[in-house]
Amino acid sequence: MLRREAQHPKVDIDFTLRRVFGKQSFRPLQREVISAAIDGHDVFLQASTSFGKSLCFQLPAVVSNGVTLVISPLLALMTDQVSALEAIGVAVATINSTTGLPERRKIMDDLFSGHPKTRLLYVTPELCQTEAFRRNLQIIHSQGQLIRVAIDEAHCISEWGHDFRPAYKELSWFRLMLKNPPVPMSALTATATPRVRADIIKLLGFDTGTLKIFNTPSARPNIHYEVRYLTDFASDPTMPEDFQVDDLLSWLKAIQDRRIARLGSDAVSRLPPMSGIIYVPLRVVCDQLAGALSSSGRGIQAVAYHAGLSTTDRNRIQAMWTSTKPPPTPVDRGGGEGETVPTAFSIIVATNAFGMGIDNPHVRFVVHWSPPRSFEGLVQESGRAGRDGCAAVSLVYYNTQERDRVLDRLGRDAENSNNRPGGIMNNSNSRNREDAARLKKQNHKARLESFQKVIRYCETTIRCRHEMIKEYFGDLELEMMGSQAAPVPQPSTTLRTSPCDFACDFCKEGRQALSTRKRKMVAESAVEDWMELSMVPIMRAMFPAQFRGAGSMYGPQCQECDY
Ligand SMILES: Nc1ncnc2c1ncn2[C@@H]1O[C@H](COP(=O)(O)OP(=O)(O)OP(=O)(O)O)[C@@H](O)[C@H]1O
């Protein structure tokens, strides 16, 4: 496998980092991952959101002769990275549904030339399934010019993963068909559970003897994780209820007050507004909540972002968002008469269409308006915060009614896809029906299990939330697999007595205070009748194993919470 070594006699990766990528130094572990790739190893990198995983295949590609194929699941992710690389002068190309025929021909002519100028080619996993593209790759490989395949968001390979994508499964083709010598591969993800990790390694045909594994802690040390228990129920899930809007406004006010107390109001008024993202479950809630916040008279500029907007609008909002710092434009106080207050907060209210790959360094908080559908989604989405390495907050609003609504939605999704011919396997033409049905069932089971972890995470009052995140993704197991782990930054004080250095509500408030806060959440019994009537029979029929012998529909009695 280590055939490439000779082609990189002495590459100064520090020089390339500064000169090409404009970065001063490597983050902990990046150098090791990059060196392993340059040495021709297969690489598995599981690193937290915002670690800088892209650099770990981009830099090796830039210093090598030949082309690195990058497989990415989202067009938006791909175009972002391609534009960023073009801007720094790297020879990069992409072939996707928006690439015209003349452009495709030009790219392929270069790749077939025997000495391609293109260093990175971004494609979708679906393109890699086509016979024509596979033939082209075989030609490039036979010319010795396909030097690496990098698989971004590699968790999409596994049906046990939250974003399972059938076309990712077909990536096993690379190791099976591109031989003599095999093409080295990199698999990168922030959110793989031990089961998903095992699938990635097996499916991509990694040799565990020579594979280089790297990881960083899954929970981000600079994010304060917090759950906020709601004391009331929403009567209409499509409307943001006043009690929750008020709670959010008072939370934001407390942030602003602390800021003013620390820096003084003059200094704060000259600062750019604080950026945040609020994730909501429905498009209609995006519009309603953005409107409610903007007209609250509290200096909030809020915009809605969801898949129902036109591409132009979405691009405009994203561009505004990723521009380094939004200007402190005054906003309408909402009281008429043109009265304005300085903008204190710039907020995007979004569905999960605004997620993977969003890279605005200045996001200070991510709020989940209701519990996210998957644990991986929670970690991915909250990982949009604090990407500059400074302190940030992840806040989840939780009550039992929302918990049950999500369970209901998961149940209905499962039911709908069971009834839909093809379902999630629509795109696969090489698998028989039985296999497709099995994968579909497994994926639904995985989704339910993942949401149960969200419930545990939110309902616990006796555990550090950072620890729970690390446990879910099996950080310890990764180290036992021989992973080279990044050193965890230790606070300078020796008084550290909490696993996360008090960066979660459990460690900060303590068990007693957290339990008291949670007890104020409206009693579960208020919804039990509704549950019995609507949910339980459906869930019991769909997931019999989850109910067997358990007193509760959420599995056996939870040992980790006092709910
Ligand atoms: N060594 C470095 N020094 C400074 N900035 C860096 C370095 N490496 C990466 N970055 C920056 O960190 C940011 C995050 O990088 P990237 O998008 O690759 O993260 P990621 O690990 O893929 O995160 P996610 O999984 O959340 O998408 C980018 O803005 C990137 O330019």
Automatic annotation (TrEMBL):
Residues 34-210 form the Helicase ATP-binding domain. It holds the Pfam family RecQ_Zn_bind. Residues 247-432 form the Helicase C-terminal domain. Keywords: ATP-binding, Helicase, Hydrolase, Nucleotide-binding, Nucleus. It catalyses: ATP + H2O = ADP + phosphate + H(+); Couples ATP hydrolysis with the unwinding of duplex DNA by translocating in the 3'-5' direction. One of its GO terms (biological process) is double-strand break repair via homologous recombination. Its EC number is 5.6.2.4. Residues 416-430 have a biased composition (Polar residues). It is an enzyme of class 5 (isomerase). GO terms for molecular function: 3'-5' DNA helicase activity; ATP binding; ATP hydrolysis activity; four-way junction helicase activity; nucleic acid binding. InterPro entries: DEAD/DEAH_box_helicase_dom (IPR011545), DNA_helicase_ATP-dep_RecQ (IPR004589), Helicase_ATP-bd (IPR014001), Helicase_C-like (IPR001650), P-loop_NTPase (IPR027417), RecQ_Zn-bd (IPR032284). It is found in: Nucleus. It comes from the Eukaryota. GO terms for cellular component: chromosome; cytoplasm; nucleus. Residues 411-436 are annotated as: Disordered. Its main location: nucleus. Belongs to the helicase family. RecQ subfamily. PANTHER family: ATP-DEPENDENT DNA HELICASE Q5, DNA HELICASE RECQ FAMILY MEMBER. This is ATP-dependent DNA helicase.
